[in-house]
Each structure stands twice: as C-alpha cells, then as structure tokens.
Design goal:
It is built from 11 helices and 15 strands. The chain is of the alpha/beta class and 337 residues long.
C-alpha cells in the first residue's frame, strides 16, 4: 500500500478568455505529493491557484494538461473512485438552511448509499463528535457561522473518506469560531487518521495546523516542507517597517548605509508599503533603521522585530510579501524580485 495520498504532476489549467479578456493561466506546471495521514496546507494569496488545484483533485475541474492521483486513483480516468474516497468542503455553504442538522447529515449519508438506519446512526455519531447534539433538530438557518462550518465538515465525513479537502474553511469566521474549527481539524487528523488538504490564505492557520506546507504563487509550487523547517531555513531575526506613502527609491537610499541588513525588500503601493529585512542583531538594526528613515524624512508606522515567522519564510522563498500574487516587489538594488 502506497504511503502517498495525493500526487500532482505538472498540472496546468488555462481558463479561456472571453471577449476582450485574455486567457488566465491559473496553474502553470504545479507538482507536489501529500503523504498519507497528514494535514497538508496549500498556502498562497488570493489568485495563487489553490482553489483551482482543489477543484482538479476533487474532479470538479479538468486540468488543461498534467496528471494527478488521489487515494491511488487517477482523477481523470477513475473519477468515480476518487469521489468515493474523498470528502470536500468548499468555500460556500454545503448544507440546506431549511433542513435541520440531523436531516442534512442523513440526506448526505443516503446520497452516499447508506441505508436509512445507518444514515440516522451516522448522523447521531457526527453531531456528537462535532458538538452539535443540542442543535440537532434546529434548522441550519438558525446556526452561527461557526456551527454551519462544523456541520459542513461533518457532512463531508458521512461516508468515512480517506482524504478530506477543506477549501478555506475558516474564511469569514470570528476568532473564537476559527479556533474551534482548528481544534476539529486537528482532532480529525489525530483520531480519524485522515489525510487533510487545507487551502488557506491565513498564515497563522497554516502554521498552527499543517504538518507540511506547500507555498504556491502564480500557479506554481515554490517550496514544500514542515512549517518549522521552512522557518528554520532563515537565519537571524526579521525587521519589518510599515511605510506611509512610501517612495521606494528614497527608502532604499536611506537604509543603504545601515550595517548588517540582508535580504532587503521594499514594497510600495499607493499610500501603504513595507520595508522588510533580515539581520543577526535586531536590537541594533531597528534603531539604525529608524534613525536612517527619520534622517531622510520618510514617514513610517509600526516597526517590529521578531524571530522568523511563516510570513518571513514566504517572503524569503517567494520573493514578495504575502499579498497580491501580481505584486512586483523590488529589492534593495531596485531589481525586480
């Protein structure tokens, strides 16, 4: 039995243009592998290709070229087998708001081929596991956002899948509901031995949940590894300065004489921007950077120094901060990153 749950090889997805719109190359040769029983994070900004990848792996979209397997089944030639082996929670709601929680789960189980008694039994089991027993007979329309998302995940598990896809499952949730969802995902991975594929644009979420992360930008894979390993690849501390109405050329000139800075990046867009750099001695570098900016009359906001974070790892490997994938950052020499 293979120890790899998912493989993707040179996936390309091009959405054709319409009218004056040009074709969109959502995936551009994306390749990766997901070990069995891991929480695997697909991390990237909006438009990076995360949702397109998920749609291909769940048979909801066909790649323009390339190949992929899920639970040992080819997503194109064995689509039915893939669907039987997976659960999928999309960004939108997956349950009927007019039905009760129990009714939603029972229907989901029946659609997966379970008998009526087995469906009722599975619904009771899942409602208990997800802390929704007291709300079992309430219409889903009366649920909070966090409760709805937990029910969506429960519905995806009625047939005990081998792989669970969660497409940005905590978007729009408040911090308390997000933390509760994180707990459920970790529980599922530990207790159910599921392979969980999590797409997210929340750095903290990926850092907290994923055993392994794939950084994606512009439809290509950048680097894959455990969050701690990605952060450990960076040495020294991070210095970040929030810039106000920045002039990138002036900022670069101002900090050119600050000793000990490396991997310097300046991003400037409209009224906001960021100066990011690495250093072996953050306490000394922060003061020197502030003095240099003050002397040049450059306006700035928050100044922070920290040990390497996943944001820093993203900046290091991708070449720009975690924002729009079309961002065109510049380094301290003014070259395109």
């Amino acid at each position: 039995m293979t120890d790899i749950a998912i493989t993707a090889t040179d996936l390309v997805k091009v959405y054709p243009g319409r009218g004056r719109r040009r074709p969109v190359r959502a995936l551009d040769g994306l390749s990766f592998a997901v070990p069995v029983g891991r929480v695997f994070g697909l991390l990237g900004p909006n438009g990076a290709g995360k949702s397109t990848t998920t749609k291909i792996l769940t048979t909801l979209a066909r790649p323009t070229s390339g190949a992929a397997t899920v639970a040992g089944h080819d997503v194109l030639r064995q689509a039915d087998a893939v669907r039987a082996a997976i659960g999928y929670v999309s960004q939108g709601a997956g349950t009927d708001p007019l039905l009760t929680a129990s009714e939603n789960l029972e229907i989901a189980a029946r659609l997966r081929g379970a008998s009526a008694p087995a469906s009722r039994s599975r619904a009771v089991e899942l409602l208990r596991e997800f802390g929704l027993e007291d709300a079992a007979r309430r219409p889903v329309s009366t649920f909070s956002g966090g409760m709805r998302r937990r029910l969506d995940v429960a519905a995806a598990l009625v047939h005990r899948p081998r792989v669970l896809f969660l497409d940005e499952p905590t978007t729009g949730l408040d911090p308390e509901a997000r933390a509760a969802m994180w707990g459920e995902i970790r529980r599922l991975s530990a207790e159910e031995a599921l392979t969980v594929v999590l797409t997210t644009h929340y750095m903290e979420e990926a850092d907290r949940l994923a055993d392994e992360i794939l950084l994606v930008t512009r439809g290509v894979s950048v680097v894959q590894g455990a969050p701690d390993a990605l952060k450990a690849a960076l040495h020294g501390d991070s210095v970040r300065v929030r810039l106000v109405e920045p002039d990138a050329v002036a900022v670069r000139a101002a900090i050119a004489s600050v000793p000990g800075l490396r991997d310097v990046l300046v991003e400037a867009s409209g009224v906001d921007g960021v100066l990011a750099a690495r250093t072996d001695d953050a306490s000394t570098a922060v003061g020197a950077v502030i003095s240099a900016l003050d002397a040049a009359g450059i306006r700035y906001g928050q100044v922070a120094a920290s040990h390497p974070t996943l944001d820093d790892a993203y900046l290091h490997f991708v070449g720009h901060t975690f924002g729009d994938p079309d961002t065109s950052p510049t380094d301290s020499k003014g070259a395109a990153a």
